[in-house]
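Workshop exercise sheet. Pairs work together: one partner reads the sequence aloud, the other fills in the structure field after running the prediction. Swap roles for the next sheet.
Pair: D.N. / O.F.
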Amino acid sequence: MDIKRMISAGAAAMVLGASVIGSGQRDLSPEAGISAPLSAVTASAAGELSGTLISSAEILDTDYAESWGIDPSLEVGDPVFGDRTTDRCAVRELPEELKGAELLLTPCDAKNSDKAQARVTAARYMTLYVGLDRRVSAIPQWLYGWHKEDYVLGTSNDVTFELYTTTLRAGQSLTLGANGQSQSVMNYIVMAVKADGLAGDVNLDGVFNIADLVLFQKWLLAVPDTELGNWQAADLCEDERLNVFDLIRMKSDLADPPAVTTTTVTTAPPPTTTTVRTTVPFDQRSYSFTVDSKLFDQSDTDTLSLSEPKGLETVTVWKAGSSGDHYCNGVCLAAYKGKLYCQWQSSATDEDSADTHVMYSVSSDGGRTWSEATVLAKDMGAGYCTSGGWYAAEDRLVAYINYWPDELSDPRGGFAYYMTSSDGSSWSAPQQVTMADGSVMKGVFEQDPHILESGRIINAAHFQDGLTVCPIYTDDPSGVSGWRKGSFSATPNGAQSLELEPSSFVQSDGTLVMIFRDQSSSYKKLASYSFDDGATWSKAQLTDMPDARTKQSAGNLSDGTAFMAGCPVNSSLRSPLAVTVSADGKSFTAAYLLRSGQSDPELIYEGKAKRKGFHYTKSLVDGGYLYVGYATNKEAVEISIVPEASLIQSK
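Structure field:
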C-alpha cells in the first residue's frame, strides 16, 4: 500500500487557523510504518525479520536465531514452528479470526530458554496473538494484562494452544518473553492480524475528537516525533493516501459551524458534551476551578478557623522509637480483598539516604489497628528505593517501588519497579514497569494511580534526565505495562520541572483535573485539564487553592464529590492538615480540619529534611470512609479516617 503525506503547508494552516511559515507540497513516505508483503516464509539471517503487519522482529535469544521465520498467510496444514516440519506439528484447527494471519514462526526448542525471545514492532494498527500450550501451568508474567480469547488453535500432534491478544499501534513494540515452562509442553506461537479502528481515531483513545484532528495536522506537517497510532483511521477519503483532503473531511465530520468543534467526553458518567474553539491550541486554553476566598483564615495558623468533620478518627500505623529507623515519608494506602495496606519509605536518620527502603503494614479492621511493619523492598542495587504506591487489580495487589541508582544522582532520577501478590503477604521479585513500546519506564512512579470510568488508569511519573513530570496512562488492566505519556508541556526548572508530585480528580462533566505543587513557591496549587481520558492535557495554570508546596492528594468520593487533602496554607508550614471538598469539582466551598498545629507533637529525632508538620499526604476511599495517610514530622506514619457522609455536600 502506497501511503504518502501530500499537503500544502498553507492549506493545512488554513484548515485550523494556524500560522505556518513556508509553502509548497510535501511528499514523504513513512517507510518505518509500512512494508511490502512477503511472498514466502522468510528465515532470520541477520537477527531481524520483517513482514506486512510485523515491521520488524528483532531476535534477542540468538541461540535459536536460525529457526525464526514469517509465514505471510496462515492456513490449515502450515507448520507453526521454524524448527518443526508439518508432519511433526502443523495447524489442524484454525479459528476464523486467524485465517490468513501473519505467523511469526518461533523455535519450539526455545521453550528451554528463560531469556526474552524477540522484540516485535507493528507496521500498522494490529492485533497480536500469542498461543500458549494449554499444558503450561503458570502463565508467563509478560502475558499479564493480555485478553484471553474463548477460542483456541489446535495442531496435528493434538496440542491445544490457548490464545491471548493485545493491540499494537503502528511503530509500537513489545518484547516476547520466555515460555514459562519447558517440560512436557511446546513453545508459544505468535500471529498478527489487522485490527479495525474507529474512523478518525488516529490516536487510538477510543473516541474521535479534536485531539485526533490536531495530531493528524501535525503528522501531515511532518512535526518531529509525531506518530499516528492508527494511520488507516485518517484515510477518510478512502483512497489509500493521506493528505489535506482527509484533514478537511476530518474537520467537517467534527465541526458545525466551522469555528467550533463538539466533542463527547467519555471520562466519567454521565457523558456530556463540551464545546471548545479550535483556533486556540489546547495547551493554551484556560480552564479552572474556584475556591471560596473566605474558606481559610490564614491568620489562624493552628486551625485556619476550620472545624473537624463528624466521626473523625486518627490512628498511628508506625512510630519511630529509641531503636530502629527514625525517618519515614511517602505514606500510601490501598484496599485489597477486605484488608487495608499502608506503604511508606523508611531509613535510619535521613531522607533519601543509602539505606532508604520500603516498609508496609496491613489492617483487617478498617484501619483501626495495624500489623507490625514489614520490609517490602530494599537492597535493589547501588542506590536506594522509595515508595511508589499501590494498584489493586482484580486478582492481585501491585506494589510500585521507585529505584534511584547511584549513577543517576546528578541529575537525580530513577526507574519504576513493581511487585505483585495474590494474598497480600507473599510477593514476587521486583520487575520494571514498562511503556507501551515495551521499553522500561525511565522515571519514578507517582503514588496514587486513579482508575477512570472507562477502565483506563491514569497517573504521573517524573522522567529522566532529572525529574520532569508528565501525566501517564495505560489501558492495560494489569497496571504494570502499556504506559504512555500524555501530551503535556511541563515548565523547565533546572534539572526538574516547575510542576511536581501531582494527583487528580474528576469534575462533574467528566473533565479530568491534575493538580501539582508549584516549585516557584507561589504557595498555590497548579492545575492542568484533560477532556480525552488523560491523553492530552492543558498547560498547568495557577489556581486560587492555597498549598504549602507539598505532594498533592486528590480524588472523588463514592458519590462523585471531589476532594483535595493537604495543607492549604500560604507558607511552607505543612500544618494544619485539612480536606477541601466540592460537589461538582468546579467550586470548592467547604473544608474540614483533620489535624491542627497543636495536635502536631514536637520533633524527637533530628535528620536530613526532617521538620514539624504533616508531610506528603495520599488518600484512599473505601467502605464509606476517606482515609488520609501522611508522615507526622517524618517520624510517624499516621492516618486520619473520616466517614464520607460527613464530607458530602448537597448538590
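Discussion prompt: The chain is about 5% helix and 40% strand. What would you look at next?
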